[in-house]
Design a protein that fits this description.
alpha/beta; Rossmann fold; Dihydrodipicolinate Reductase, domain 2; 2 domains; 6-stranded parallel beta sheet; 15 strands; 38% helix; 25% strand
Length: 373
């Protein structure tokens, strides 16, 4: 039998209740929920009751004193203080994206994990999607890649989660929330400088909290971009053009607060074949991603389209299996802390391209820290 690990959760909000906790319970041969933590006493007690977890606290420092093998950091703010304290306690860390709010913060976490000989895994569940993995294994079938387009049309998530059994009371004192928000703003300023309010909002709330999934996923298929040739931030979203050698990738993220349906498509145009991933809302359990292939001979009218469903196994659940396997096998996970730091550098390069109206070469080594301010 596989080794059963004791896992603690810091942060019992939406993603914990919709995805991580239900799948940890299903994977009870691999994990025992050894403790839960949330700033809200009512919420942590409700979650503890639902999942029969006796160890509960509103202070993550207390959670790290309990006998745990791994901790999931699922908080809305910076993950760095919790992760680094966990490493000091000899505990492995799963950090939801974004890993950190700046390159320097993320690199410090990576270095701390190495010194402590602990695993640091980042929560990029889309990398574990069965359809994504199928495309990844067959990218060569597209022939010479010419163009890539990533499109996200964001809509309110309420309709996607209303049917789940959630406990979401919020009895956190306003002073505590204000203090955390101030800390968040300070960390964003350290990352991208004293920028205008819109740029700060888009970097923090749209790029780091959502679009970073697309940035990481396309890097998993094409490698690192060599250039950010364009970026524009606007009230309704962001558009950026990344170059992967001779391959152009146009990525758009648009906020549509009046739309009911979330849509996300990733298109890869090869000279011989086109592949399109159609991804469902990330809050729908086991909803499959569709992988469409379009084929046809040059100069002919005939063409064909095939639709593949690679499986119904939930990406969040597969991600947890990878966490367990990486720790028990003593290896790095497929979505490492180092990889997440490169996403943070790319995010900062996109901000630079927007603010300075110029292309950014070698974006994977870019950081605005210490440049703007």
């Amino acid at each position: 039998m596989a080794e059963r690990m004791r896992i603690g959760l810091v942060g019992c909000g939406l993603v914990a209740q919709v995805m991580h906790l239900p799948y940890l319970r299903e994977l009870d041969d691999l994990f025992e929920i050894g403790g839960v933590c949330d700033l809200s006493p009512a919420r942590v007690n409700a979650v503890g009751d639902l999942y029969n977890v006796s160890r509960r606290t509103t202070d993550w420092r207390e959670l790290l004193t309990w006998p745990l093998d791994v901790v999931m950091v699922l908080t809305a703010g910076s993950h760095a203080p919790i992760a680094e304290a966990a490493f000091d306690a000899g505990i492995h860390v799963f950090s939801e994206k974004p890993l950190a709010l700046s390159v320097s913060e993320g690199q410090a976490m990576v270095d701390h994990a190495k010194r402590s000989d602990r695993i640091l895994m980042t929560g990029y569940m889309k990398r574990y999607d069965p359809a994504y993995e199928q495309l990844q294994a067959h990218m060569a079938d597209l022939g010479e890649l010419r163009h890539t387009r990533l499109t996200t049309q964001e809509s309110p998530l309420d309709g996607y989660v209303a049917h789940y059994q959630m406990r979401m009371p919020n009895d956190v004192p306003a002073s505590v929330i204000a203090e955390l928000q101030a800390d968040d703003r300070a960390r964003v300023r350290a990352a991208i400088g004293d920028v205008d309010a819109l740029t700060a909002h888009v970097y923090r709330d749209w790029i780091l909290d959502s679009m970073i999934h697309e940035l990481n996923a396309v890097r998993g298929l094409l490698g690192d971009p060599t250039r950010v040739s364009f970026a524009q931030i606007r009230e309704s979203g962001i558009t950026t053009v990344l170059e992967f050698g001779d391959v152009e990738c146009v990525a758009t993220w648009t906020d549509l607060p009046g739309m009911a349906r979330y849509r996300q498509t990733w298109e890869f145009d090869g000279v011989a074949r086109r592949a399109v991933l159609e991804l469902p809302s990330p809050f729908l359990r086991s909803a499959p991603t569709l992988l469409r292939y379009e084929d046809g001979a040059a100069g002919a009218a005939a063409s064909s389209e095939t639709v593949h469903i690679a499986g119904y196994d939930e990406a969040f659940k597969r991600e947890l299996r990878e966490l367990h396997a990486a720790i028990t096998e003593g290896r790095q996970p497929r979505t490492t802390g180092e990889d997440a730091v490169r996403d943070l550098a790319l995010s900062a390069a996109i901000v630079t391209a927007h603010l300075e109206h110029r292309a950014v070469e070698d974006p994977m080594t870019h950081s605005r820290e210490g440049i703007a301010g």
